[in-house]
UniProtKB/TrEMBL annotation:
<keyword id="KW-0520">NAD</keyword>
<feature type="binding site">
    <location>
        <position position="38"/>
    </location>
    <ligand>
        <name>NAD(+)</name>
    </ligand>
</feature>
<comment type="similarity">
    <text>Belongs to the 3-hydroxyacyl-CoA dehydrogenase family.</text>
</comment>
<dbReference type="InterPro" id="IPR013328">
    <property type="entry name" value="6PGD_dom2"/>
</dbReference>
<feature type="binding site">
    <location>
        <position position="100"/>
    </location>
    <ligand>
        <name>NAD(+)</name>
    </ligand>
</feature>
<comment type="pathway">
    <text>Lipid metabolism; fatty acid beta-oxidation.</text>
</comment>
<feature type="binding site">
    <location>
        <begin position="14"/>
        <end position="19"/>
    </location>
    <ligand>
        <name>NAD(+)</name>
    </ligand>
</feature>
<dbReference type="GO" id="GO:0006631">
    <property type="term" value="P:fatty acid metabolic process"/>
</dbReference>
<feature type="site" description="Important for catalytic activity">
    <location>
        <position position="161"/>
    </location>
</feature>
<feature type="binding site">
    <location>
        <position position="295"/>
    </location>
    <ligand>
        <name>NAD(+)</name>
    </ligand>
</feature>
<feature type="binding site">
    <location>
        <position position="164"/>
    </location>
    <ligand>
        <name>NAD(+)</name>
    </ligand>
</feature>
<dbReference type="InterPro" id="IPR022694">
    <property type="entry name" value="3-OHacyl-CoA_DH"/>
</dbReference>
<dbReference type="InterPro" id="IPR006108">
    <property type="entry name" value="3HC_DH_C"/>
</dbReference>
<dbReference type="InterPro" id="IPR008927">
    <property type="entry name" value="6-PGluconate_DH-like_C_sf"/>
</dbReference>
<protein>
    <submittedName>
        <fullName>3-hydroxybutyryl-CoA dehydrogenase</fullName>
    </submittedName>
</protein>
<keyword id="KW-0560">Oxidoreductase</keyword>
<feature type="domain" description="3-hydroxyacyl-CoA dehydrogenase C-terminal">
    <location>
        <begin position="207"/>
        <end position="303"/>
    </location>
</feature>
Length: 305
């Protein structure tokens, strides 16, 4: 079988909403075996039960046979415990989907890319962090960024930005670091297409295209609430019914996670020094209060998880 992307086994780092969704579309649509890793066994259990629920729904709706669902589920295995991320060493591509935190990502990437097979790709699902910075952190301490080896290692790092909920949203945004090779970009694009997604390409700027546009919009809605311009319901209804958005901006912020929105907005603000990206005080305070939105039951709205 000829596979343009050359991905015969995929590793996914992080079994949160995004990592689990990526594992599912890879197993179901691209039909590749997936090794899913998370430090937390509780998170793995949650992730796999979401996968089971979504596959069962597809079977109930007649979109998949029992057998197709079982085949997809069987393609996903868990790597955890003492093996850690080293258990992903033999895969052809790793998609990193851990929290939106540069030092955490750098810690994971340092030396890890060098341990992978020479042709393996390391893709980050970051929403806003510089892929160029992440690629630079992939080099072991004794390898210079200007050396042939350094260029080869960093050239295998790329941004592959999926959207939540991954099984539903049709887009993947592809981001090239300064170091990314054209071959890495082509293979990552082919893989996203095999997962059933349309692909757009963005330069490596803070927030890329998607979040550079979405986050000021969400932030402006939070400032409307902060100023008392309208109630949360009226802000959301205005955008839902007036502009046909599937969710209002405050609902969407809760859905993405207020901690994630703040982290992205901080990256945008620090990366551009443009005041239009300054996060609102209300968002900062809500995150201080650990009101993270839908994921922990309290954001602009309340949820029974
Ligand atoms: N995981 C998987 N599938 C889900 C899901 C989830 N978390 N939530 C909903 N779905 C599925 C449902 O099962 C249903 O599937 P079906 O048609 O096969 O039955 C379908 O989505 C529609 O769901 P519902 O009928 O329950 O509800 P809605 O019609 O209101 O749709 C929604 C839910 C798809 C989430 C819709 O409200 C929507 O599109 N919202 C906007 C989402 C969005 O903008 N996402 C991008 C966020 S930005 C991002 O991710 C980037 C990051 O960098 C911040």
């Amino acid at each position: 079988m000829s596979i343009a992307h050359g991905i015969r086994t995929l590793g996914v780092l992080g079994a949160g909403q995004m990592g689990t969704g990526i594992a599912l579309v890879a197993a179901l649509r691209a039909k590749v075996p997936v090794l899913l890793h998370d430090r937390s066994s509780e998170q793995i259990t949650k992730g796999l039960s979401l996968v089971d629920k979504l596959l069962a729904k597809d079977v109930a709706k007649g979109r998949l046979t029992d057998e197709q669902a079982k085949e997809a589920r069987d393609r996903i295995s868990v790597v955890g415990g003492d093996v850690g991320i080293k258990g992903l060493r033999d895969v052809d591509m790793v998609v990193e989907a851990v929290s939106e935190n540069l030092s955490l990502k750098q810690k994971i990437f340092t030396s890890f890319v060098a341990e992978l097979k020479p042709e393996a790709i390391l893709a980050s699902n970051t929403s806003s962090i510089s892929i160029t910075k992440i690629a630079a952190s992939a080099l072991p301490a004794n390898v210079s960024s200007a050396s042939e080896e350094g260029k080869k290692i960093a050239g295998r790092v790329v941004g592959l930005h999926f959207f939540n909920p991954v099984p539903v949203m049709k887009l993947v945004e592809l981001i090239s670091a300064l170091q990314t090779t054209p071959e890495t970009l082509d293979r990552a694009r082919a893989f996203a297409i095999a997962c059933g997604k349309e692909v757009t390409t963005s330069k490596d700027v803070p927030g890329f295209v998607s979040n550079a546009l979405l986050m000021p919009f969400i932030n402006e809605a939070i400032m409307c609430l902060e100023k008392g311009t309208a109630t949360r319901e009226d802000i959301d209804t205005t955008l839902r019914l007036g502009m046909n958005h599937p969710m209002g901006p405050l609902q969407l912020a809760d859905f993405i996670g207020l901690d994630t929105c703040l982290a992205i907005q901080q990256t945008l603000y620090e990366g551009t020094r443009d005041s239009k990206y300054r996060p609102s005080i209300l968002l900062e305070r809500m995150v201080d209060a650990q009101w993270y939105g839908r994921k922990n039951g309290k954001g602009f709205y309340e949820y029974n998880n």
